[in-house]
Amino acid sequence: MGRSSKDKRDIYYRLAKEEGWRARSAFKLLQLDHEFNLFTGVHRAVDLCAAPGSWSQVLSRKLRGKEEQQEVKIVAVDLQAMAPLPGVTQIQGDITKVSTAQEIIRHFEGHPADLVVCDGAPDVTGLHDVDEYIQAQLLLAALNITTHVLKPEGTFVAKIFRGKDVTLLYSQLKIFFSSVTCSKPRSSRNSSIEAFVVCQNYSPPAGYVPNMSNPLLDHSYDVDFNQLEGPNRVIVPFLACGDLSAFDADRTYPLQLAEGKEYQYTPPTQPPIHPPYQQACQLRRDNQLSKEEAPSVCPSQDQDQDQTGTSS
Ligand SMILES: C[S@@+](CC[C@H](N)C(=O)[O-])C[C@H]1O[C@@H](n2cnc3c(N)ncnc32)[C@H](O)[C@@H]1O
């Protein structure tokens, strides 16, 4: 398979390289903004789980614009190191830690954020129940840190897996936001259970004190939220977003997209700087991996930069 084959199979991967985005995920945030107008009036934004940085690129380009507005502050947090971006302050840290929340607030000089976005994903195991559970934990961690840093009436956008406990997550989000919508951008594959919750109008319950515990998913809750009926049922609207004439993430496209426009291969915009698989590749090269059962190919620098492994 040539290096252009992925360009054929994944139109958003190809467009991301051609438009200079670090990952195809950029289109998801752009399409969500198109539907929900996320960026109007935003001066302070937080990008949780930001590496390799395509959502931070979108924030930087949309909020700072061409004039590089000085009053705009953007903070990006990730466990992994990320190549620098103009106007984006990076914190290499864990979103489950209160110290990370304090660092964000320090950067905003005590002011709360207008917008928090989170495209967080754990390393997927391929065991769907485990992956859904960990993703849900990460979403709740993102919600927790958001309650420390978001201003009243602010907006929170986060990746969610629409698994069997999704109603439980919606019910948690509804406690803090008067409007919660689940949305699926065109650039997110239909075959993936990934979607995004767009939570607007942050209004925590009176007397709520932000903390970092996730009591709902520790098996100590005894309400089956899926069984609730009538007015007690948690119903969250579902909205497909992105122009319906936009490219379909599940389709294969020819390399020549338009008559007279010749295809040229574009390398990735920013290869990962310290990918988690680096050590494994080195061990393999040094012949230090104990077993060689399945033939596996170490990902090259050309691989999809959506580091989830799921390429949703
Ligand atoms: C899908 S990638 C994010 C892609 C990013 N939105 C972009 O557009 O480039 C998911 C990221 O979540 C990060 N992550 C997972 N758990 C985290 C945690 N507890 N704290 C901070 N980052 C975390 C991973 O390191 C990974 O970089």
UniProtKB/TrEMBL annotation:
Described purpose of this protein according to its UniProt entry: Methylates the 2'-O-ribose of nucleotides at positions 32 and 34 of the tRNA anticodon loop of substrate tRNAs.
Complex formation: Interacts with WDR6; the interaction is direct, and required for 2'-O-methylation of position 34 in substrate tRNAs.
Protein's organism: Gouania willdenowi (Blunt-snouted clingfish)
Catalytic activity entry: cytidine(32)/guanosine(34) in tRNA + 2 S-adenosyl-L-methionine = 2'-O-methylcytidine(32)/2'-O-methylguanosine(34) in tRNA + 2 S-adenosyl-L-homocysteine + 2 H(+)
Family annotation (Pfam families): FtsJ
Biased composition annotated in UniProt, kind: Basic and acidic residues: 284-294
Keyword Cytoplasm listed: yes
GO biological process: cytoplasmic translation; tRNA nucleoside ribose methylation
Molecular functions (GO terms): tRNA (guanosine(34)-2'-O)-methyltransferase activity
Region (Disordered): 284-312
GO CC annotations on file: cytoplasm; nucleus
Record keywords, A-Z: Cytoplasm, Methyltransferase, S-adenosyl-L-methionine, Transferase, tRNA processing
Active site, UniProt feature: 159
Annotated compartments: Cytoplasm; Nucleus
Annotated ranges, domain Ribosomal RNA methyltransferase FtsJ: 21-202
Alphabetical list of HAMAP family matching this protein: RNA_methyltr_E, RNA_methyltr_E_TRM7
Gene name of the encoded protein: ftsj1
Binding site for S-adenosyl-L-methionine: 53, 55, 78, 94, 119
Bilayer-crossing regions: none
Main location: cytoplasm
Record has Methyltransferase as a keyword: yes
Name of the molecule in the record: Putative tRNA (cytidine(32)/guanosine(34)-2'-O)-methyltransferase
The family this protein is said to belong to: Belongs to the class I-like SAM-binding methyltransferase superfamily. RNA methyltransferase RlmE family. TRM7 subfamily.
